[in-house]
Amino acid sequence: MADTFQTFEEDLSLTSQEDCEDSARSILEKLRPEWKSSEIVFEYFSVGITNKIFSAGFGTEHVIFRVFGHNTNKVIDRENEVTAWRQLAEHGFAAPLYGKFNNGLICGFLEGKSLKIEEMRDSSFHVNIAKRIAQLHTSVPTNGKSLVFEKMHQFLKQLDTKFEKPGQQEFYDKNFPADLEAEVQKVENLIVKLKEPIAFCHNDLLVHNIVYNKEKKTIEFIDYEYAFPNYALYDIANHFCEYAGVEGTPDYSKCLTKDQKWLFINDYLRFGSEKPQCGVRIASMFKNLPLFEAAAHLFWAIWALVQAQNSTIDFDYLTYAYARYQQYEKRFEKYIATAQH
């Protein structure tokens, strides 16, 4: 099967399934000329709140189409996504990337199923997730510079503090500070001082982006839209935030307990490069964890505010932004209270 990266001048419809499949077939005539167009089977995955994702299969072979949502280029650097994806595939952490079309990408199919939130909360999966994060962080080279705050500043440049709908404006004014830039700077100043290790991070390890292969009993990660060099502890903290779920309003009472987080970090270090294990290092990471959880919540709160103004997807981004911002405040206060002791 050819694995050279190709470019196709096609737009896949986000609204018409028939038009979308016609365009996909047109691409597959060039990408997989041996496939019989009439026998191609499409399967849709409606788990993303940013993109339209579906597979195209012929016999036992499958490829994945990712169609970008409208205006997602405002929050996702598509050039970086392709570069990061190809780099990760080279090191065995992503499916091969076969090509791009005007509003999306085509990639290989990873065997397995995305975890369900109940499965992710099952402690039997924690050690394998921690191991795979550690492998990612220790295998893919970086230039040693975190980009997370640069991304947040870029988001804020896309955000208009004036909303079109009066109800949205009232909600925004009531629940968010007048100067979000100051909040980002406040967190950045504290995190930079900690000098936590930087690694190549996934940065979006929510339940749908974690694939479990039952036969091999292995964990893989998918969807690298937000992958970039970052603080390793941010990647872990961001993952911890996602145990609240992504459908509807997140329930943060369902996140891991302190003991579960401690064990997860211990497993992460055990499989990573920081050996032999050191209780002092685990304690240091655990002490800094709430600040990185706060940073993750702030990142997604600002992201959701931009999406609320630009996305055409039927999702209540504004309420989601508020839920994340509330958690940002709580985790930041937790860190400050702990750091003072």
From TrEMBL:
Has UniProt tagged this entry with the keyword ATP-binding?
no
Q: Tell me any Pfam family this protein matches.
A: Choline_kinase
Looking up SUPFAM superfamilies in the UniProt record yields: Protein kinase-like (PK-like)
GO BP, one annotated term: phosphatidylethanolamine biosynthetic process
List its EC numbers. 2.7.1.82
State which pathway it belongs to: Phospholipid metabolism; phosphatidylethanolamine biosynthesis; phosphatidylethanolamine from ethanolamine: step 1/3
Which InterPro entries does its entry note?
Kinase-like_dom_sf
Which terms are listed as keywords in the entry?
Lipid biosynthesis, Lipid metabolism, Phospholipid biosynthesis, Phospholipid metabolism
MF-aspect GO terms: ethanolamine kinase activity
Q: Which CDD domains match?
A: ETNK_euk
The UniProt entry's GO CC annotations, sorted and at most eight, read: cytoplasm
Top-level EC class, please? transferase
Q: What is this protein called?
A: ethanolamine kinase
Membership in a protein family? Belongs to the choline/ethanolamine kinase family.
